[in-house]
Amino acid sequence: MSKEYETVIGLEVHVELATRTKIFCGCSTAFGGAPNTHTCPVCTGMPGSLPVLNRQVVEYALAVGLAVNCHVNQLCKFDRKNYFYPDNPQNYQISQLYLPICHDGFVEIETEGGLRRVGIHEIHMEEDAGKLIHDEWEDCSLVDYNRSGVPLIEIVSEPDMRSAPEVIAYLEKLRMIIQYLGASDCKLQEGSMRADVNISVREAGSGKLGTRTEMKNLNSFTAITHAIEGERQRQIDLIEAGGEVIQETRRWDDARGDSYPMRSKEDAQDYRYFPDPDLVPVWISDEWIARVKEREPEFRDRKRQRYREEYDIPEYDIDIITGSKRMADLFEETAALCGQPKKVSNWLMGETLRLLKEKSLDPEDIRFSPENLAKLIGLADRKVINSSVAKEVFQAVFEQDVDPEKYVEEKGLGTVSDEGALRRTIEEVIAGNPQSVEDYRNGKEKAIGFLVGQTMKAMKGKADPAGVNRILRELLQGRPLEQE
Amino acid sequence: MANVITDEIIEYVGILAKLELTGDEKEQAKKDMGRMLDYIDKLGELDTSGTEPMSHVFPVRNVFREDVVTGRDESERILSNAPGQKDNMFMVPRTFD
Q: What domains can be seen in chain B, in order of their start residue?
């Protein structure tokens, strides 16, 4: 006889903020620099160095907090979290414990059972750690401090989620809000959004929380889903076997589909927090809050609703386009320039998504401008270029944001509008392909396709296929009469 | 001395601080820490019920930097502080996560 269990899940989500510089020094946060080239005495914890808070970090943290309905601690301050680990050169991480910037908010997620509220316990600002690389040859570890001091916010949820799909919905919701604010690109794979998942199980109907474990190293939605399902089962098996769940941090190994405990007893979790005396308190005035609130963008839910009302495009397209702030902006700006939302949507849903996929890029990586997409749509509309040339030009727009008008002119891609030249070419094609002409006349409709193809080839693709088709039929049907 | 530091506590504090103490040093540290806690107890006798917690010694708020890159590549100087280096990185004893 098996009992019914309920999974209780809370999340700690770390988000790397999109500032140009680190939280406490003027070092660049650019990704991918050679090791330790973005470091200084502050972010490598040299004695005597003085951290100074980056104003933009407060702006972003505040914007996220307000967007998830939080209360703001108008007086907030930083504390030191003490622990020894080589990725943390100061032997403490500057974080917020006593007065975090925001607390007690919520987001709403769509679940099978309808709209559901997930509480936000608090949001605090902190610094990221360096990156450790284990060197097998020398049997040592190597540290790159480029990431040390990159600003993070940690968003701590209440234990309000009950299943993996709810967790994914919550993360998607946060990601959309934060991306729309421009506060982070929130890429799980690249680590600019990281989730630690706290899980416990309890018998269904029990009001008491079970002992929880914390799962780390989850860098994709699938890893998160696997980890939740794996850990739920591990805990249930333990309890059913008469054992007890131990409160611990576990590392999920998605390749093995298993987790193992991370810290030994030697690393007691006793962080001995105390206020950081190097940093003065932050006072967030009512005016500051009002200013941030005023700049709040139209978020995804509202945008979707407006698209349904304003644009005649399918729900599926709306979902995809609003699923990325970059794409939504591009869509709206291009549609405003060319006045043809349907066509803009087609370019985004078709060629844009295809090229993104082909190049393993994210919609946020789109670099071309609305002006150039609008120009391309105009060229195709005016039949200056045909649809296959348009795709070729689009590729250049996508890759290098070229001006399509100049590009078409320079490369001589414009459709030949000189009907005389086109007629002469078609006449040559007809003369050179008697078999196909014969087939067509014998009722093989398909043969015309071959002749259109030959003409397009002779015209180097620069003809309007519909025009070619028309003239071909005219000549093929006209000629026998002339000959008789 | 009102506060007595046990062997277990001094052992634990040693682990947290990554210190290995000799027997004599442990005895001395126990005494010192006991005296420190006595002093804190003394402070605790004060009635602070009407006093706001002080978050900083200076009456200053909102000291900010603007988000402008001022750092440049000084890795050579930074790395000169490293106990060892390889491939422009700090070399440290093997550490597991």
A: 7-43 (1.10.20.60)
Over residues A131-167, the pLDDT tens digits come to 999 888 888 999 999 999 999 999 999 999 999 999 9
Query: How far is residue A143's CA from residue A89's CA, in Å, rounded to a whole number?
Result: 10
Tell me which residues of chain A, numbers 144 to 163, contact chain B at a CB-CB cutoff of 8 Å.
144-145
In tens, the pLDDT along A24-48 reads 999 999 988 999 999 999 999 999 9
Is any Cβ of chain B less than 8 angstroms from the Cβ of A373?
no
pTM score = 0.84
Helix/strand/coil (H/E/C) assignment for every residue in B28-82: HHHHHHHHHHHHHHHHHCCCCCCCCCCCCCCCCCCCEECCCCCCCCCHHHHHCCC
Contacts of A154 (CB under 8 A, 6+ apart): A12, A13, A14, A15, A95, A123, A124, A126
Q: Does B60 sit within 8 Å of A280, measured CB to CB?
A: yes
Q: Could you tell me which residues come within 8 angstroms of residue A391 by beta carbon, excluding any fewer than 6 positions away? A: A351
CA distance B82 to chain A (A): 10
How much of chain A, in percent, has pLDDT values that exceed 90? 67
* Residue A421 forms contact with B (CB below 8 Å): no
The CATH number assigned to the domain with range A419-483 reads 1.10.10.410
Interacting residues of A428 by C-beta distance below 8 A, sequence separation 6+: A458
Q: Domain residue spans in chain A?
A: 5-288, 298-411, 419-483
ipTM of the complex: 0.89
Question: pLDDT digits over A255-285, tens only?
Answer: 888 898 886 545 557 899 999 999 999 999 9
Strand A53-54 versus strand B64-65 pairing type: parallel
